[in-house]
Amino acid sequence: MDLHEIKRNYFRINIKENDDVSVKINNVPFEVMGLNDGGIGIRLSSEDILVSVGDELPLEFKIKNLVQTLLGKVVHISPFGPEEFLCGIEFLNMDNETKVKLMEFLESRRENIFKEE
For the chain, what are the domain ranges? Predict the structure, then answer.
């Protein structure tokens, strides 16, 4: 693959354990690895690989004190160590209130990241 073909549309923020972001799929919590204004990256174990690229899944997305039920679409599944995978999920139906909270959170995290360097 030519590097010029790789295109990222969103700036992704790595999520730390103390960040107030979580996601559940079918009421099962997953570790959030990354977040941007278009979607979320979660860690899967080999037992969790019951999804395929293109699948649409119901999500319970929590950011700070706002909990939102969303629909997400699996856009990639990539190896992430010997027994784990990184799964990228695109948000499909986020409402405006959640979008505003997400953008505020991302902007705050970006500012903190650039202050740390």
Answer: 3-116
